[in-house]
Design a protein that fits this description.
Helices cover 88% and strands 0% of the residues. By secondary structure, the protein is mainly α. The longest helix is centred in the N-terminal third of the chain and has 40 residues. The chain is elongated, with a radius of gyration of 21 Å. The relative contact order is 0.15. It is a multi-pass membrane protein. This is Phospholipid/cholesterol/gamma-HCH transport system permease protein. Keywords: Membrane, Transmembrane, Transmembrane helix, Transport.
Length: 260
């Protein structure tokens, strides 16, 4: 009976969390179209988030391109299908691997940073001071950050994909002596708009999920300074689970669309 009670309490806590996050998201859409626009703060957040994650995304993408090609080459070589490597690598990276890996990196790098930043502002009563002074803290702190993550993640994904494909080219150039022009001709011949458009659309949802969860956890941070670390940690965990759910829904919807 004790176990059933714990499961019930956990289920109830999850439902409450989902409800509060939904209300928080609805408030975001309501505040987005209100004045003032806080455009300068939005640009500052875009620069900070892009600059903060650019090197990490580049290194990760480069290593993924290298490792993916090195692991795939021996198997394809057995079947005499080495010439398919540019097509296989580019489609796999752009459709699935690039967006989800980049989103997970940004969830750990940006999502945790937002949760910790807003959490520390909450526990030090800076957000309360903004409310007392007549400033709209939700508009200034939350809306700008969520919009910045929503629009910056697709840029980071494109950058990571480009670096990953370049890493794959280096392996092929060294092992198979494939020229730059030949490799990239095969890459672009294999890609279609049906590969790019669904992958690009879902990156906006990934960015929104990272921003809204990070802001939600930080904005309602409790339990003093200990809650700041908890907000950052829970933002990463919750966002990672949400990213996989969004990715599954996106792939499922895309598959239905193409079946039609």
């Amino acid at each position: 009976m004790n176990t059933i009670s714990k499961i019930t309490e956990l289920f109830k806590a999850v439902l409450i969390e989902i409800g509060e996050l939904s209300y928080f998201s609805a408030r975001f859409f309501q505040e987005t179209f209100k004045r003032p626009t806080e455009f300068k703060e939005f640009l500052r957040q875009c620069f900070n988030m892009g600059n903060r994650s650019l090197l990490l995304v580049a290194v990760t993408g480069f290593i993924i391109g290298l490792v993916f090609t090195l692991q795939s080459r021996p198997t394809l070589q057995e079947f005499g299908a080495v010439s398919w490597i540019p097509s296989m690598v580019s489609i796999s990276l752009i459709r699935e691997i690039g967006p989800i890996i980049t989103a997970l990196i940004c969830a750990g790098r940006i999502g945790s940073g937002i949760g910790a930043e807003l959490g520390s502002m909450r526990v030090t009563e800076q957000i309360d001071a903004m409310e007392v002074s007549g400033t709209n803290p939700f508009k200034y702190l939350v809306v700008t950050r969520v919009l910045a993550t929503t629009f910056m993640l697709p840029v980071l994904v494109f950058f990571g994909d480009a670096i990953a494909i370049f890493g794959s080219f280096l392996v092929e150039n060294i092992k198979g002596r494939v020229s730059f022009l030949l490799y990239y001709n095969q890459v672009f011949d294999a890609l279609e708009f049906g590969d790019l458009i669904p992958a690009t659309i879902k990156t906006f949802f990934f960015g929104f999920a990272i921003g809204i969860v990070g802001c939600f956890k930080g904005y309602y941070c409790k339990k003093g300074t200990a809650g700041v670390g908890l907000a950052a940690n829970s933002a990463v965990v919750f966002t990672s689970m949400l990213l996989f759910i969004i990715d599954f829904i996106a792939v499922f919807v895309t598959d239905i669309f193409y079946d039609i």
